[in-house]
Amino acid sequence: MTAEKLILDGNRVASDIKETLLGRINLLSEKRIVPCLATILVGDDPSSATYVRMKGNACKRLGIQSIRIDLPKNTSTSELIAAINKLNADPNVHGILLQHPVPNQIDERAAFEAISIEKDVDGVTTLGFAQNAFGFADFPSCTPAAIIAILDYYNIPIEGKHAVVIGRSPILGKPVSLMLLNKNATVTTCHSKTTNLEDVVRLGDIVVAAVGKPKFVQGDWIKPGAIVLDAGYNEGNIGDVDYDNCLKNASAITPVPAGVGPVTIAILLKHTVEAAEKLT
After folding, report:
1. Of 35, 140, 223, 273, which has the fewest beta carbons less than 10 angstroms from its beta carbon?
2. Full residue range of the structural domain in which residue 65 is found
3. What is the strand order of the sheet 227-230 is part of?
4. What is the Cα 178 distance to its own chain's centre?
């Protein structure tokens, strides 16, 4: 008899997180504080515009104020930083999210660094990254935090497990590796220069796919009984793992969509509320 597979339902986890925020938002409103997230979009990339709209709608449904700053595609780094600094100085703005990627002429890292650490609810600054590495970040990067939230929600043990992370981006692969390490997993971080990648992935009790390539992780890379968390989102609602084939070996897996994505947005809202609460 084949063991029952556990589908890690991101919508369910996200709903649980958002449910816990409602009372906290009401308490803030009694103190005349409305949590406010400002989102900056540079240019007219349709995917980025969709993400920004989704985040704005999620805010509205919970009673979080959402401010959208649209800047033209030819915006310079200094102009973008000036817009960020204006939001930093606004006491009614509690969180700032710079939608990435930004156009090529902009120094994205310089723009991220301009965000005040108190308002870095997306966890993109180097200070936020360092705090996360030491295990005391107020606002770790949202997608890594979402992955941990899913594991915690389903009571999936992390301590003592071998976690294999495929990807080393500064806002996903690296921070999730650190968060798993801080929870006492043994962590291997793989990347484009990793040799015999599939053999390394086969060692993983927990596999996190964060590579940005559709159906990159194959079913025979997955050790029987492993937990698979797909943090990828590619055109056509396709993740970074070959879902159907990985499901054959995995004991638990996140779907795409309705996996890590909804939880990432819920974590962003949670961070925004927490930033507002720090004012009370």
Report:
1. 223
2. 32-117
3. 6-7, 252-253, 227-230, 206-209, 162-166, 186-190
4. 14
| 142-153 and 173-182 helices, crossing angle to 10° | 40
**Tell me, what's the pLDDT at 47?**
85
Note the residue count of the chain.
280
Number of H helices, E strands in the chain: 10, 9
Q: Where do the DSSP E strands lie in the chain?
A: 6-7, 36-42, 65-71, 95-98, 162-166, 186-190, 206-209, 227-230, 252-253
Active site residues: 55, 99, 122
The list of the chain residues with pLDDT below 50 reads 1
- Residue 81, both tokens: 């930083």
Q: How many Cβ atoms sit within 10 Å of the Cβ of residue 95?
A: 30
Instruction: Work out the angle at residue 259's Cα, subtended by the Cα atoms of residues 254 and 260, and round it to the nearest 5 degrees.
Output: 105
Residue ranges for the known binding site for NADP(+) are: 167-169
134 assigned to some structural domain: no
pLDDT at 1: 37
Annotated binding residues, written as ranges, equal 167-169
Give alpha helix (H) positions in 102-234. Answer: 108-113, 126-134, 142-153, 173-182, 197-201
3-class SS at 250?
A: coil
- Other CB atoms within a 10 A radius of the CB of residue 119 amount to 24
Same domain (yes/no): 150, 255: yes
The Cβ of residue 211 has, within 10 Å, a number of other Cβ atoms equal to 23
Q: Say yes or no: 195 and 244 in one domain.
A: yes
Q: What is the pLDDT of residue 3?
A: 64
> What is the tally of structural domains in the chain?
2
Vertex 274 angle, CA 69 and 233, to 5° = 60
Q: Are residues 147 and 42 in the same domain?
A: no
